[in-house]
Amino acid sequence: MAALSISAGGSSVTSVRDRRSRVYRDHVVVPLFNLAEWLVSNWWHLWYEIGDTVQQKPGFEQRHSLAFAGDGFVLPQLTMVPSSGRMHLRWIRWAPRHAAVEFVDEDEALVSRADLETEFRTIVEAVVERLRSMDAGSPASVSLVEAWDAINSLDPEEVEFSGAAALLGIDPFDVENSMAETIVAFWQRAAPSIREEALASADERTLPRVSEWLEQTVETLRITGQKNDWTKIRAALSPIRATEPWRRGYELADSVRRHLGVGDGRFEFQAHGPLAVHHGEGVPPCGRIHGLVAENAPACVTTSRSETGRRFLLARALGDYVGRPEPGFGILTSLFTDRQAQSRAFAAELLAPAESLRSRLDDRFADDDTIDEIGREFGVSSQVVLHQIENHDLAKPVRYGLSFR
Q1: What are the structural domain ranges in the chain?
Q2: pTM of the full predicted structure?
Q3: Which regions of the chain are under pLDDT 70?
């Protein structure tokens, strides 16, 4: 047993209130064996499996929430998801039904992956060392030690495969040979700039369709995605100073609008000429993939959408192109990554600039009619306007006579 205390971003994840004594403390008392066993079992998923903004893959919560590590003991509902080299941590208030304590803190933080891995390795190593010193021979103890030794004995190629399998949502130590071959073939054929997110968007059933769709769509974009004036504009844009992906998206969109001199009104895409954004539509291979963007231009092939949805995807494709840190194809997905967050923020700000909305919101509150009217003016959905109002704190949206945040 151990007193386990977890802190992140200046907050205590393990702050609890004892219901009987009404005393607050910053730790829980749990056996570390259960925690170490869960960490080892989900090691590759923790560091590689990307979250989704719409619907997670089956079993995702069990693989990423520390609450499932308790095995009868109470641990915080701390969800850990990799995000572009960092780890996004989120924890909530929680009162377990039959427990003597309740978790009282709720927050989220972005932390260094390397730092978090160091902490987890320290815990696992301590447990494994204790088991070895006790010569523990139970099946569970032997299994934990052997699994940890196996993780640490992989060569670079095996580590790469393990990460790829985890992206797909598969345990790399429990994968059939045929699926392993399919993963390796996909990883070798797909463009490096998109293969991680493409793999994370698929599952065992849809991976062959994703592979086929990528090959066909890449060839289509190689033909249609020729260089145009967007290449020069991309090179001429001011350097982005923001670090958070959504702020980078906002800043990049503002830079594009100023460079083009389009004012604060509705943004119109060109279908022809030097600023054309060539666009085609097709059936996506899976629900998480929304489109593919060319290497040398913002030309794209996307899913079929309404007029406002089509404009938003075009804006995301443009944002992906002008905001790329390095050359390569781009992919539009519903995944929780910095690249997708930046393209979504870019699209919202390009099509419905926050300052333009501010000038159209005379009161402190914005009702449904106002939001819908602004959406029609800018050619975006009411949801995009609502997100802009909330994210930029422009007003308090009102629904059915009640204000909400």
Answers
A1: 2-151, 224-351, 355-403
A2: 0.90
A3: 225, 399-405
